[in-house]
Amino acid sequence: MMQASLPAPAKRPQLWAGFGFFVLVLVLLGMGLSSINAWLTDEQSLPVRQITVAGDFHYLDPVDVENAVRANQPGSFFELDVQKALADIEALPWVYRASIRKEWPNGLHVYVVEQSVVARWNDEMLLNAQGGAFTADLPLGLNDVPHLFGPQGSESAALQGYKAMQALLQQRQVRIAELVLSERFAWHLRLDNGLQLKLGRSEFIDRLQRFVDMYPLLQSSERQPAYVDLRYDTGLAVGWQEEQQERKS
User: Fold this and answer.
1) Is 83 domain-assigned?
2) Pair 60, 135 in one domain
3) Domain count of the chain?
4) Disulfide: which of 31, 117, 147, 229 matches 237 by Cβ 3.0-4.6 Å?
5) One-character DSSP codes across 106-155
């Protein structure tokens, strides 16, 4: 005896219902992610409210550091590019080095090492203690820093030479007011008492020591020396101020 088969249940409506629910979930998820992203990047939702600038400052204004960060950055805490902000800070004239970190939920902490000034360089720039040249206005009170001159790229050599020679001259309580390093790397000094020293290219420290040893004799002379030429293997030559005045007249 044959039995009648039952009709298969209708699956298509359920399939479409499931697919529609899946699409709805995707749409809602996308809308949610978009809303979260907009909220996170909206500077009014999570703005950088506080920028703390720390360091030992003599010439740098911390306000300039904060302005450098805000000038080229979005206001959002999450979108702020730390590396870009760091580059903008270190581009300021009086900043030698800086570090920066974000502080949740809306702050930045910046630590700055200020440029030091040990000399003027080629009358156009300043020289820091590491031998690096930078451009900035010379602050009031630093007019007595020595003037160093030399070819481009010789900043470090000129500074090291200055430090070594100043240490020797300190024995006689005189200071270098001007140092010139020529294109051929010959050394020429002007001391703070106006005396000129010609040291040449080689063995300039030994030659300067010769001057230091002879300086008391020059001081005891009735005539005032104008320059001392030390470009000899032994001895030195002295030019007197009276002789220079006679040649000019």
Assistant:
1) yes
2) no
3) 2
4) 229
5) TEEEEEEEEPP--EEETTTEEE-TTS-EE--PPPTT-TTSPEEE--TT-H
